[in-house]
Amino acid sequence: MYDVSRANKTSFIPPPGLMTEYTENEDDLSLDNVFEEPPRPPTPPPTFTTYNRQAARLKSRSNVPEWSSIELQLVGHHVLWAQHLWNAAIVLANFLDDNSSDMCQDKTVLELGAGGALPSLVTALCGAHQVRHFRPPSKLGLRWPTQVVITDYPDTILLDNIIRNIDHNIPSRIRSRVKTQGYVWGTDPEKLFRCVDCTPLAGESSEDALVIKPDAFDVIILSDLIFNHSQHSALLDTCEVALQPARRLEEVPQSEMKSADPKKLSHEDRGSTITTPCVLVFFSHHRPQYAARDLNFFACAKDRGWICEQVVQTKMKVSCSASCFDFSEGISEIAWHSLVFSIRQAMFPDDPGDEDVRSTVHGWVLRRPASVAS
User: Fold this and answer.
1) pTM of this prediction?
2) Mapping DSSP to helix (H, G, I), strand (E, B) and coil, where does residue 142 land?
3) Which class for 114: exposed (0-12), middle (13-18), buried (19 or more C-beta within 10 A)?
4) d(CA 45, CA 61)
5) How far apart (Å, rounded) are the C-alpha atoms in residues 293 and 297?
6) CA 45 distance to own-chain centroid
7) Which residue from 219, 362, 340, 214 is spatially nearest to 288, judged by alpha carbons?
8) How confident is the model at residue 101 (pLDDT cuts 50, 70, 90)?
9) Taking Cα atoms as reference points, which of 148, 24, 159, 138 lies closest to residue 82?
10) pLDDT tens digits, 262-297
11) Which fold has domain 19-316+353-367?
12) SS3 137
């Protein structure tokens, strides 16, 4: 049973790039507010951006779902920063696509604080919408429909934007398995479990209607949320009650025992495995002076018994191309050269702090300890 007394009151810390605006609005408590204010500027219109799947992912693997891009609408402005497609969401989307057989296919997925919901949409397109059979011996013969539940703060603007992105990117045949729900971190997650739809999809056996609903999720996504330092406990509260219990090692198929890719990780410990159930926590240190506070999330998680492992560390780069003439061999031997170079890209380039730090995305996996086999 969920312990309501543990739920944190929701409060938010403005991120970089918005600190000045937020502070000025919050401190404007003078008597001038009693009088009529001039008209406020209209809310900016939504913006659009496209996430393109890397062709190498399709060429390097067989039996992967075919899709090429995701078009995202982002709200024009929101105090909870949903107008941004965060670097962590892009890196996490790539990670999920690379590890779709382990993280997406036949999994039930929950995303908290989704914003534009890019990672969730990737999981749905990569197979988190099918009917999965329970593994023996505990629930032999029973089935449940895997599902993607996308959540954000219960604000109509945020939720309608997510619904729009679902409608424009998820095929109609599987759309019923992708749900949107308003949710405040740290509160009772029962309504999240009620989102799961047991209706069989077109092409599924009619007996698949006799499935049972899951009471927890295989994968929980936290994409660039932990800079909300006051919300660390609330996030962990939800993860503790919403994540499936850890499976014993002998219950994990060899196909799911996959080591972290050393090419994507500047980290000494590369020998452990990526399996579910797990929580995926991807983030950047947008304010390097508060990096220790960001990382305190993992200290709190370890104190609660979570196993925490870093699996990704990568710098965001923007590839640019240019062309020039080479006169080194004389005017009669002009050569045309194309140059390609990369620029490290932080979310807010004009903000203070080391740009190398601010442009780096870190990815961690959190798991509960597996029960001891009897």
Assistant:
1) 0.74
2) coil
3) buried
4) 39
5) 7
6) 24
7) 362
8) confident
9) 159
10) 344 443 333 345 788 999 999 999 999 999 999 999
11) Rossmann fold (3.40.50)
12) coil
| Amino acid type, 79 | V
Distance CA 300, CA 298 (A): 5
Beta bridge partners of 284: 361
Specify the pLDDT at position 117. 96
Task: Please give the distance of CA 122 from its chain centroid, rounded to a whole number.
Answer: 10
Question: What backbone phi and psi angles, to 5 degrees, belong to 213?
Answer: -80, 145
- Residue 270 is predicted with a pLDDT of 39
Peptide bond into 253 cis (omega under 30): no
Q: What is the DSSP string of 188-235?
A: -THHHHTT---PPPTTS-GGGGG----SSBSEEEEES-TT-GGGHHHH
Backbone phi, psi, residue 162, to 5°: -65, -45
Two tokens at 344? 């490290």
17 has a pLDDT exceeding 50: yes
Written as one letter, the residue type at 303 is: D
**Residue 46 contacts residue 74 (beta carbons within 8 Å):** yes
